[in-house]
Amino acid sequence: MKTISIICQKGGVGKTTTVVNLATTFSTLGYKTLILDLDPQGNVSTYLNYDKNDNNDSNAINLLEKKSNIIPGNIKENLDILSSNTQISKFNDEKIIGGSKLQFAFQNNKFEKYDLIIIDTPPTMSSLVQEALAVSDFYMIPAKPEFLAVEGVAQAMDFAKKSVSSIHNTNPLFLGVLLNQIDKRRSSYLEFVSELEYLLADKLFTTKISQTTEIADGPFYAKTVIDFKDDSKSKVEYFDLANEILKKVGLNEEITELSDNRH
């Protein structure tokens, strides 16, 4: 099992979009995947047309409250969710003293059946982000191809490093920065990417996600890239990204070509 947190203190960088589309792509490739939503906005559930206030299934709040018999909700084959809602905000300013609540919960619940757990986090640098890092094997940072994004990435990396050093028994590896919403027609794009490549080297994902109408409108229609046409630019990019991540985390033994998995 590999756990990956998606973090960034800036909103509007495609964090939740990345979580949803990566998770659905992993599940389509045959990897048993769980989405753990720690964002009070609960946008993952909205995107997937899942009732985040349904009391029949367990949610992320139950997990943080250390309740037993956690039963995630099901989205589709190979894809489950522990949803979030505004009630999780009560944990956002709590200091991790005496150990991480999520570490305790992970030790006392059986998540071993999952190949991947993808964690969505609030667009802040807060206790909930620290909780996510405490149980993660890896973390990644989405960013927009804009000059000010460099500062945002640096701040997120610094927060993660400080958090990791202060939490017992945690040492997630930094997978890299994912560029979202790119438009290669912009004159500043190549210069910006060159600067990031210089600063980040192999910590900048090779795959970059383009700015497309399909991605922008996806949440409105509750459609992920899996629902797009096979020749969709967005669909191809997310399969490429999923395969790049699988290689980085050591789950690439059974990677299947995109042509064999597209619906």
Tell me about this structure:
The protein has 263 residues and is α/β, with parallel strands linked by helices. The chain has one domain (2-252): Rossmann fold (3-Layer(aba) Sandwich). It contains nine helices and seven strands, in the order E-H-E-H-H-E-E-H-E-H-E-H-E-H-H-H. A seven-stranded mixed sheet has the order 3-4-2-5-1-6-7, with helices on both faces. Strand 6 (138-143), helix 6 (149-166) and strand 7 form a beta-alpha-beta unit. The radius of gyration is 17 Å and the shape is globular.
What order do the helices and strands follow?
EHEHHEEHEHEHEHHH
What's the CATH architecture? 3-Layer(aba) Sandwich
Which percent range fits the helix content? 25-40%
Radius of gyration: 17 Å
Strand order of the largest sheet: 3-4-2-5-1-6-7
Content of β-strand:
5-15%
CATH class: Alpha Beta
Give unreliable regions as ranges. Answer: 254-263
Mean pLDDT: 85
What is the CATH topology descriptor?
Rossmann fold
- Estimated structural class: alpha/beta
Number of domains: 1
Number of E-state strands: 7
Number of helical stretches of at least 4 residues: 9
CATH homologous superfamily placement: P-loop containing nucleotide triphosphate hydrolases
Task: Give the topology.
Elements: E1 2-6, H1 15-28, E2 33-37, H2 43-47, H3 60-64, E3 73-76, E4 79-82, H4 101-108, E5 116-120, H5 127-134, E6 138-143, H6 149-166, E7 173-179, H7 189-200, H8 213-221, H9 233-249
Parallel strand pairs: 1-5, 1-6, 2-4, 2-5, 6-7
Antiparallel strand pairs: 3-4
Helix pairs in contact: 1-9
